[in-house]
Amino acid sequence: MSTPPVLLQRDGAIANLRLNRPGVLNAADGALALAFRAACLALEADSSVRVVVVSGEGRAFMAGGDIAQFREAPHAIAETLIDPLHEGLQCLVRMRAPVIASLHGAVAGAGLSLAMACDLAVAAEGTRFSFAYAQLGASCDLGGSWHLPRLVGLRRALEISLLGDTMDAAQALQLGLVNRVVPADSLADETRRLATRLAAGAPVALGQLKRLMRESWSRDLATQLGAERAAFEACVGTQDFHEGVEAFLAKRAPRYEGR
Fold it and tell me: Residue 24, Cα to own-chain centre: how many angstroms?
């Protein structure tokens, strides 16, 4: 029986999506792309998922695309690789659950684009980051050109993408590519702590905040103010909002049930 290229496991309300081609540093081929899309579609459709953690098996998070496939069928890459990866990525961005990237080893090319598309990112010390596309004579995918300038600014984004220099975890933190850097042996524990904290939050409120932040780039202030009002009204209609208010007044921790 072949090993699945993507593992999807549940830990209560936390879903773990793990890239699983460790022998090639989780480089994306057609099979991984299809499995990634299927996993992301399943996660988006499951309202019981409160947090998603994306990670990589073995020595790396993801070292980009599978170069062997590029050589064998270059003209099929857009259809067999990019299209399913893009569909899966849009699920992660759309879904209300926060998505955390747990990063180690190589985070390059499509791996960096995937990490940037996640809502939060935790990196182990020793992680190496590279945009990497230009070294292959290629432009980027997986939203790299959308997220990178928004995270680091246009001038920095052009430098990172055009020169393709490798960055360490400390540089990635300084640039805003990741939220936290932790010792390598603490990565799993720190990711789990962050996921557990988010999973205890009010799902509707967190989902509305995620959507408001992501959609703000395409709106003027007046439109965004209207969206904020509508989102707040949606939260007020939930039991979790009333639980939050009562817990605050009673000076106790809230117990959010996702309703």
Answer: 21
If you average pLDDT over residues 204-213, what whole number do you get?
A: 96
Q: 1 pLDDT band (50/70/90 cuts)? A: low
What gap in Å lies between CA 100 and CA 49, rounded to an integer? 13
The pTM assigned to this predicted structure is: 0.94
The CATH classification of domain 6-199, taken from the options 3.90.226.10, 3.20.20.80, 3.40.30.10, 3.30.365.10: 3.90.226.10
Which architecture does CATH list for 203-250? Orthogonal Bundle (1.10)
Q: Quick one: average pLDDT of 58-62?
A: 97
For the chain, give every domain's residue range. 6-199, 203-250
Q: How far is CA 118 from CA 76, 91, 155, 165, in A?
A: 27, 11, 22, 22
User: Coil, strand or helix: which one is 229?
Assistant: helix
DSSP state for residue 47 in the 8-state scheme:
T
Domain 6-199 matches domain 203-250 at the CATH topology level: no
Structure tokens at 181: 């850097």
Q: Give the C-alpha separation, 255 to 257, whole Å.
A: 6
- What single DSSP character describes residue 96? S
Under 8 Å between Cβ of 57 and 20: yes
- For the stretch 160-188, pLDDT in tens is 999 999 999 999 999 999 999 999 999 99
